Every structure is written in structure tokens, then in C-alpha cells.
């Protein structure tokens, strides 16, 4: 941003950038372009704009004194270089001072007559063939308004809770059992540009059970825009999700601390989420639709083993198989155990089904996620496996 007293001489070479058209009535660009334009003398700028506007003015308005100049003009009289349609709102960046080491957004791309037209001898041309230099809002004249707007935004931000970036109360949850939601009502939408962090703690000897009752978060394939993240430690996410499909409940076995993080980007939102958390000593058989975090070496098995697993089941665990019997099918389309190397499910390590005991499955990294799925018919006894931790050097 420039200072009110910053002065830049006419003829100074400035830079304009944008994704606008590269010629008049051309196509919008798919890549960012820039062009160097020299600042035009204020009096010449005022004159050429009068020649453009006079063709659009009524006779009585022509005799009124011209308003004060609130814009900057930049570009050669002969045309050929200019901002164009689609560049509006972009910056006009100019060097300040004699050394040119400090640059500022002196203007904001506003409008122009055509793109790259010559505006020399404008008055002698028919109105439809006249051109103009690029016209840019003079940021220095807008500084009082910009400062007032920023102060209002800062005042509103300071009234926000704890993180000051969250539209609802976040921070440490004081109760060992409670509710986390954003926004406070399902009839509202969450804010853009939010970053909310809640921390949950339960007494030693207890684990945490999280039950998500509803979720409506901007959806995309990898939850890159808005997302809800559950973690048990820094860089250890248990679940990352978005969209409107209600996730499983989460059983954080042997974890008495958890973090819930919600973030949103600059556009598109939803009705948010609502979850409950509570301490549990032990969940004997979590059943289907539960994500279980396993942090210690342990035996794991399909729901209800050695009885038949249920139809329409999905179960996740976070492998030497001792027993394996799932419905067999081509590409394991019916019932399957899928092993992933990440929470998002993009690193597929193995897809297993059938009656043969698989060889040991080794994770790519420190994290392994198991997803068990069954369809609506035919069941078997399932599987049982022992989870074992080995040093990374052992598989190099």
C-alpha cells in the first residue's frame, strides 16, 4: 500500500497483471500475464477521458465543470499495450522513490475504452473508434476509506472467541462429555475464512468416543477447501472429511486427548457439523460404522468374530493374519478388506477377499488404515489378525 504523501512521476514504468483478455474481444487468458505501462500526466489523463466521455454525455452535462480526478492513467498514446476486460480489480504496481527498491499498489485496474487502442488525436475520430489509456483507481485517495474498513473488520475480529478466527466458541472443552458444533444453529451457514480448534481431554484410563450426528461441509474429492479434521496428536489425523455424508463414529482407543479442527476457505459453505464426545473405559465390540484407532500392538478382528459378520457393514482400524474368510469375487467387489496408507484413502496398499490367508501386509509409513466392507448378501466368518510394529529400517 502507498502512503498518502508518496509521489510517482509521470512516465514511471509500472506493472499491471491479470488473467484478462490479451486483445479486444479475445478470449480470457488461462495464464497470468503482465505488461509494463508508463504513467500518463494527470492533465493529459483528464483531457483524454473527457474526449471519451463526451460522446456519452447529455448536452447539459457537457457544460458542467469536470469532477476532480480520482484515477490514474497508464499506457502509450499509440496503443498496443494495455489492461483489458477481465483484468479489473488487479493491481497497478509502481516503484516508489528514486531508488525504485520499494513497490506499492498505486492503482486498481478499473476500465478503459477498448483494449490497446491508440488515443492520440482522439477528438478527430468518431466516438466508436476512440481509445483511452488504462484507467486505474488512485489508491492514495482511497486510503481513508480503506483504513476505516480495516478498523471495522479488526473491531469485529477482536470480538470473536478465543482463536479470533472462529465464528463460534472454540478452545479447550471444560467438560469431559459434551457437544461441539459450528455454526450454533443448523439453520445457519458457517463463515468463510474460519479456523476453529477444540481440544478434548478425558481422565486417564479412559478413551474418547466421538459421535458425529450430522455434517454439511463444502465437498471436493480431497477436502482441500473446507474440512473437518480429527487428530490425537500433531501430524496424526484420524479422520479428514467434508461433504454431507455422515461419517462414522470414532473410538480413540487408549487416547485421552483429541483435537478437532475446522477450516473454511474464501467461498462456498454449508450448514457445518454437530458432534458429541464422551469418555469410555472400553468399547467391547465397536460394531460397524466405527473408526477404531489402535496405537499399541494388538489383535484385531472383524465385527463379531468368530461369528458371521453383518451385511451392509463398513469398519475401519488404525498385519499377520491368523484367519481369513471373506466372500470371494472378481476384484473383491462384494466383501473386502482394503488397507490404506493414509487417512484420506488415496494410498491403497492391498485389497483382500476370499478364503486364502494373505501374506503379511506392511504399511508404507507409520500409519495404516483398514476398511472392511460387506454387501447385502452372503457372509463368512471374517478374519483375525495380529497388529505388529516393526522399525522402518527392518523393511529397507
UniProtKB/TrEMBL annotation:
Single GO MF annotation: serine-type endopeptidase activity
Domain CUB: 166-280, 288-390
Pfam families: CUB (PF00431), Trypsin (PF00089)
Main location per the UniProt record: secreted
GO biological process, one term: proteolysis
GO terms for cellular component: extracellular region
UniProt superkingdom: Eukaryota
UniProt entry keywords in alphabetical sequence: Disulfide bond, Glycoprotein, Repeat, Secreted, Signal
Keyword Iron-sulfur: no
Keyword Disulfide bond belongs to the record: yes
Matches recorded under InterPro entries: CUB_dom, Peptidase_S1_PA, Peptidase_S1_PA_chymotrypsin, Sperma_CUB_dom_sf, Trypsin_dom, TRYPSIN_SER
Positions of the Peptidase S1 domain: 1-151
Subcellular location: Secreted
Protein name in UniProt: Uncharacterized protein
Amino acid at each position: 500500500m502507498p502512503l498518502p504523501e508518496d509521489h510517482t512521476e509521470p512516465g514511471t514504468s509500472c506493472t499491471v497483471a491479470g488473467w484478462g483478455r490479451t486483445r479486444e474481444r479475445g478470449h480470457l487468458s488461462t495464464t497470468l500475464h503482465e505488461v509494463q505501462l508508463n504513467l500518463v500526466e494527470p492533465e493529459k489523463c483528464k483531457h483524454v477521458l473527457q474526449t471519451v466521455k463526451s460522446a456519452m454525455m447529455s448536452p447539459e452535462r457537457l457544460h458542467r465543470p469536470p469532477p476532480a480526478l480520482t484515477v490514474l492513467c497508464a499506457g502509450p498514446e499509440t496503443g498496443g499495450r494495455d489492461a483489458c476486460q477481465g483484468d479489473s480489480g488487479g493491481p497497478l504496481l509502481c516503484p516508489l522513490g528514486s531508488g525504485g527498491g520499494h513497490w506499492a499498489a498505486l492503482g486498481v485496474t478499473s476500465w478503459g475504452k477498448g483494449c490497446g487502442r491508440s488515443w492520440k488525436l482522439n477528438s478527430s475520430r468518431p466516438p466508436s473508434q476512440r481509445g483511452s489509456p488504462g484507467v486505474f483507481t488512485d489508491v492514495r485517495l482511497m486510503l481513508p476509506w480503506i483504513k476505516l474498513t480495516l478498523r471495522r473488520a479488526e473491531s469485529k475480529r477482536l470480538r470473536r472467541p478465543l482463536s479470533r478466527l472462529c465464528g463460534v466458541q472454540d478452545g479447550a472443552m471444560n467438560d469431559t462429555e459434551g457437544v461441539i458444533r459450528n455454526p450454533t444453529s443448523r439453520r445457519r451457514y458457517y463463515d468463510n475464512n474460519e479456523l476453529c480448534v477444540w481440544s478434548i481431554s478425558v481422565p486417564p484410563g479412559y478413551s474418547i468416543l466421538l459421535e458425529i450426528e450430522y455434517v454439511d461441509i463444502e465437498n471436493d474429492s480431497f477436502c482441500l477447501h473446507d474440512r473437518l479434521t480429527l487428530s490425537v496428536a500433531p501430524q496424526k489425523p484420524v479422520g479428514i472429511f467434508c461433504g454431507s455424508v455422515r461419517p462414522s463414529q470414532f473410538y480413540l482407543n487408549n487416547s485421552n486427548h483429541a483435537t478437532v479442527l475446522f477450516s473454511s476457505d474464501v467461498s462456498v459453505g454449508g450448514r457445518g457439523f454437530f458432534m458429541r464426545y464422551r469418555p469410555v473405559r472400553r468399547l467391547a465390540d465397536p460394531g460397524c460404522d466405527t473408526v477404531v484407532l489402535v496405537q499399541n500392538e494388538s489383535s484385531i478382528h472383524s465385527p463379531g468374530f468368530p461369528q458371521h459378520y453383518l451385511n451392509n457393514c463398513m469398519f475401519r482400524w488404525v498385519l499377520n493374519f491368523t484367519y481369513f474368510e471373506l466372500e470371494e469375487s472378481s476384484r473383491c467387489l462384494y466383501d473386502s478388506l482394503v488397507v490404506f496408507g493414509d487417512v484420506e484413502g488415496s494410498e491403497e496398499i492391498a485389497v483382500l477377499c476370499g478364503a486364502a490367508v494373505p501374506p503379511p501386509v506392511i504399511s508404507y509409513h507409520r500409519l495404516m488404515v483398514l476398511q472392511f466392507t460387506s454387501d447385502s448378501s452372503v457372509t463368512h466368518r471374517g478374519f483375525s489378525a495380529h497388529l505388529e510394529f516393526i522399525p522402518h529400517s527392518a523393511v529397507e
